[in-house]
Amino acid sequence: MAPRKIIIDTDPGVDDILAILLALSASPEKLQVLLISVTYGNIDLQNCLRNAISLFHYVNKEIAWRESVGRSLGFETLRSSKPVVVAIGPEQPLAENASMLDFFHGQDGLGGPHLSLGQQPHLTPAETWQHLLEVAETSSAPEQSEIIAKEMKNPSSLFTQSQTPAHLEILKLLRDNEPNSITIVAIGPMTNLALAAAEDPETFLKVKEIVVMGGHIDQADNPALQPPSSLEQAPNIPEPPFRLTRQPPGPIRDLLNMRNQTAPVADFNTFADPIAAARVYTLTSPKPHTVMPFALPLPLCEKQEEDVAPLPFLPSYPDNLSKRLNVTLFPIDITGKHVLARGDLEASLEPLLAAKSPLAEWVSAFMKATFDKIVSTSPGVSRDTVGVPVHDVLTIWYCVDYDDPKWEISEGEDLRVETVGQWTRGMFVADRRSRKRKDDDCDDGDGRLTGGNGNGNRLNRCVGSPGQDIFGGLLLKRIFGS
Ligand SMILES: [Ca+2]
């Protein structure tokens, strides 16, 4: 069977980094990584990009170290298809300012061992690369200078710097490859994908499958509304503003961030740009125009500010598209059950740390910060029992081991993203009333959740994996080979 070709659309924070490492560690017979398209998300775009470069830096050092000590080099997919193209996406959502999970991921997205670069809005890809290099070269932090400056200038680098905006790079790959041969793995806000779909819908529809870490479908499973005892004791929890783009610091935010959620009913990736997610999912409908999100007018106060960049206007899709998009969701319902336990990580890394593995040292540092954050914010969780759901990793596992019969995927659910709710922004609305779908060529409906007209989204959803119990061990074994 031919390897699955993937594009990873990512906002590199903790679980993205582990997901990318898992992908790069796969067998080249199973997986080929064509592109890493970076978006804002967990933290601002420049820090996401810096984390991606850091990943290649440590993998480069790791391969050299493994060679020097006579170990298997690993990272077969990466070594067989390097350099991987890294492209730069937008700095903010389609409709609003970026909402970021920087509290949980640290200001650099990896628990805080680096300096923050700050935001440089509205730069071209070339300007963004240049800015990243200038910051590194003038940095007083030797580690940052070494990682970014050396890695960006290294001709034997494992990655190349694309000067093309990420959504155009995605379209180029879809044009240049056989239809139905590329899978896009979306593990950040979906702004890049929405831009690509709007730019050239028919080329976008050449994608084989879009695998998304997003959604929280079954509200009965949602414990975010059950606060821990520390929350009850917290004084003066700030009231969220009406246009909620970021949960204010405090116990609620701690609690939601642990679940990769920014609102009680929404996962972070969807919450961060619900209009982008909704626009992509409409392409799964037989009649996308019936489920397109509203285009929101700007509030008056924002219109009057001259330094606020105009929002991108994206057109509707043309009628009579040639096919429907194939999307498979990995919502928090399933990703939240796949946990990396501190005990497993430490047991796996201990001999590698003793032997000075560069990758083990890096992963150990940012995972320690992550575990410590959870212990400090979670009553009843101790140092020894703590684990962290690494949501994004599950999507890559699915792409690598797609032939495992134990994956359980429910098909064709009408799930729609709420884009305008005051309290429900980014929530998935499921129409579960029993109804019989008509064929794709049914009469036009208005797309409302009234049932029976055959419109609506048709999303596939992962409801079972090959095993929660084997997940953490498998992840560590594939990345570290031990
Ligand atoms: Ca992510």
Automatic annotation (TrEMBL):
Keywords: Glycosidase, Hydrolase. GO terms for biological process: purine nucleoside catabolic process. Residues 6-439 form the Inosine/uridine-preferring nucleoside hydrolase domain. InterPro entries: Inosine/uridine_hydrolase_dom, IUNH, Ribo_hydro-like. Gene3D superfamilies: Ribonucleoside hydrolase-like. It comes from the Eukaryota. The keyword Ribosomal protein does not apply. GO terms for molecular function: purine nucleosidase activity. Residues 227-246, 436-456 are annotated as: Disordered. Pfam families: IU_nuc_hydro. GO terms for cellular component: cytosol. PANTHER family: HYDROLASE, PUTATIVE (AFU_ORTHOLOGUE AFUA_1G11790)-RELATED, INOSINE-URIDINE PREFERRING NUCLEOSIDE HYDROLASE. Belongs to the IUNH family. This is Putative nucleoside hydrolase. It comes from Hyaloscypha bicolor E.
